[in-house]
């Protein structure tokens, strides 16, 4: 199952990109059978399909928690929100982050590109998503490991004069 999430925002360009026949055919050719799209506040409704000649496609606007969808996904395609990115990486799921170039002062681009450079995920734009999926090599991804904040917290406590544990 491929799970697509745009978070709480509107990112119709991403939803439109995954709703193209080209992307759906590439996903199906790569062995994926289901495409579930969380479309947030977007106004574009993707085409539902029951999988007669390809992917089973369904969508919804919001969910109280996307954690279950992330856990059951074989591949996640996400907007570049840090919460969505790190939740997916912590679960060890392959991730394609699609940058919303319409956002002003988009700091998300730097985060996505840095994590892509470190080979934790793939980074794409809506117009290049089909190429990214086509060239996907999941074996090349490096698992993301969270840093240990304890040494930093200890240093801050020491600096502020708190007693050591």
TrEMBL record:
<dbReference type="Pfam" id="PF04101">
    <property type="entry name" value="Glyco_tran_28_C"/>
</dbReference>
<protein>
    <recommendedName>
        <fullName>Glycosyl transferase family 28 C-terminal domain-containing protein</fullName>
    </recommendedName>
</protein>
<dbReference type="InterPro" id="IPR007235">
    <property type="entry name" value="Glyco_trans_28_C"/>
</dbReference>
<dbReference type="InterPro" id="IPR052474">
    <property type="entry name" value="UDP-GlcNAc_transferase"/>
</dbReference>
<feature type="domain" description="Glycosyl transferase family 28 C-terminal">
    <location>
        <begin position="1"/>
        <end position="156"/>
    </location>
</feature>
């Amino acid at each position: 199952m491929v799970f697509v999430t745009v978070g709480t925002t509107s990112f119709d360009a991403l939803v439109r990109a995954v709703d193209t026949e080209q992307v759906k055919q590439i996903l199906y050719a790569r062995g994926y059978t289901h495409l579930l799209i969380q479309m947030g506040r977007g106004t574009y409704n993707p085409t539902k399909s029951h999988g007669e000649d390809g992917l089973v496609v369904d969508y919804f606007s919001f969910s109280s928690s996307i954690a279950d969808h992330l856990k059951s996904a074989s591949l996640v395609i996400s907007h570049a929100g840090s919460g969505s990115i790190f939740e997916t990486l912590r679960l060890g799921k392959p991730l394609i982050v699609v940058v919303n170039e319409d956002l002003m002062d988009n700091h998300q681009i730097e985060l996505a590109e840095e994590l892509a450079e470190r080979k934790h995920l793939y980074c794409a734009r809506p117009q290049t998503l089909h190429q990214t999926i086509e060239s996907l090599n999941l074996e090349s991804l490096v698992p993301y490991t969270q840093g240990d904040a304890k040494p930093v917290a200890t240093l801050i406590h020491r600096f502020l004069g708190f007693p050591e544990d």
